[in-house]
Amino acid sequence: MAMDCGIYGFINIKHRTFFFFFTFFCLVLSFSSCSSSSTVQINSNSILVALLDSHYTELAELVEKAMLLQTLEDTVGKNNITIFAPKNQALERDLDPNFKTFLLEPRNLKSLQTLLMSHIIPTRINGSVSSKTGSTRHRTLSLEHKIVIQSNETSQQWLVNGAKIVHLNDVTRPDGVIHGIERLLIPRSVQDDFNRRRSLVSIAAIKPEGAPEVDPRTHRLKKPPPPQNPGSPPALPIFDALAPGPSLAPAPAPGPGGPHHHFNGEAQVKDFIQTLIHYGGYNEMADILVNLTSLATEMSRLVSEGYVLTVLAPNDEAMAKLTTDQLSEPGSPEQIMYYHLIPEYQTEESMYNAVRRFGKVRYDTLRLPHKVDAEEADGSVKFGHGDGSAYLFDPDIYTDGRISVQGIDGVLFPHEEKEEVVDKAVTQERKGKPAKVVAKQRRGKLLETACWMLGTFGQHSRFNCQ
């Protein structure tokens, strides 16, 4: 009897142990099945993979930036979806640049997600299905917005919120379909957010003004100058805003605008000089602007005041041909560089079109009063004359709307200086013979006048006035 009780107790312990391990094994299986069911595996034949690999690259890029891939994967695991994909041109060219900038700002992520999810329906709608109905309303993944699909059997045209479906059933997969539409569908809430943000930006900041100034003569407040719109052209010509130099007289008036600089000239000049260095072949030009002269500082001040400049930059091979005498005279590097600065914003296309249309164009330079001539030659723009000419060699090295840098293969010098030297020599040769004739005529006149005076006073003269 005791043996039976011992065996019975051992059997109970054995059953309890088996029941415990069996229960634990079932829990593990159920937990693994739940976790596997919660994590949906997307195969290579999914509609999401097809969207990322399709020709709707702009829409796919926006989906990735909006961080919607996980949300769409969960939706595809539960339902078939229909995606109305705008064509790339609608997102790249036709879309307002300010609206696109608004969507890509990190603080407007919710608006971007709402916009994209309003193009997706959690049901499959094929062309054949939509053709059977005239007009249907469907709820999108954004939940707040619905879209209306209209079909016309006679014209075989489908409309989604007024946008034409240009590619029906463009991409089809077992878990969804993609229809191509002609433009972007913008929900009213996203448009309202954009309008609200744009109106706030226009009135957000008020520029601080300095303390009022008192005129010491009248002890009254000085009247402030009339306000200028940001980015408006300066009132004074660029020659009056230049700093006094060796060849510039009289001293210029101060540049317009005062402390209210609407352009960062220092950053722009620094950027274009770094571009010259990285471009290669223009290190000598950059060295002269920064180290040998103070033209870089002067150019940054002019750009900050609102002026525009076009730089004709000789390459290193052309700068190496300059002699020591040409650079050793005081102010000669500045004179050379001033002749290569045009107070206009010109690109290679604008200059070439001008010389093709007018044949010969004369541009003002910062070296008063000299101008640089440009004409069309061999399909390019040629500056200067004869042996001192230079061709537009590297077009549009740097263009930012304020500063334009055009590379040339020679150093330019004013043509008028050579003409003056030639004219002086020719004038001296031509004045040689007529000078004697003029002297003879003046000598005869003097003798004739002297004889007349002596005869008047009745005095004898040894001169024979005949």
From TrEMBL:
Compartment annotation: Secreted
InterPro entries: FAS1_dom_sf (IPR036378), FAS1_domain (IPR000782), FLA15/16/17/18 (IPR044654)
Span of domain FAS1: 43-185, 269-412
Residues making up the signal peptide according to the UniProt record: 1-30
Region (Disordered), start-end ranges: 208-264
GO CC annotations, alphabetized: extracellular region
Segments of skewed composition (Pro residues): 224-236, 247-257
Keyword vocabulary terms for this entry: Glycoprotein, Proteoglycan, Repeat, Secreted, Signal
Homology family: Belongs to the fasciclin-like AGP family.
Protein role: May be a cell surface adhesion protein.
Protein's name according to its UniProt entry: Fasciclin-like arabinogalactan protein 16
Lineage, opening ranks: Eukaryota, Viridiplantae, Streptophyta, Embryophyta, Tracheophyta
Gene expressing this chain: 25492172
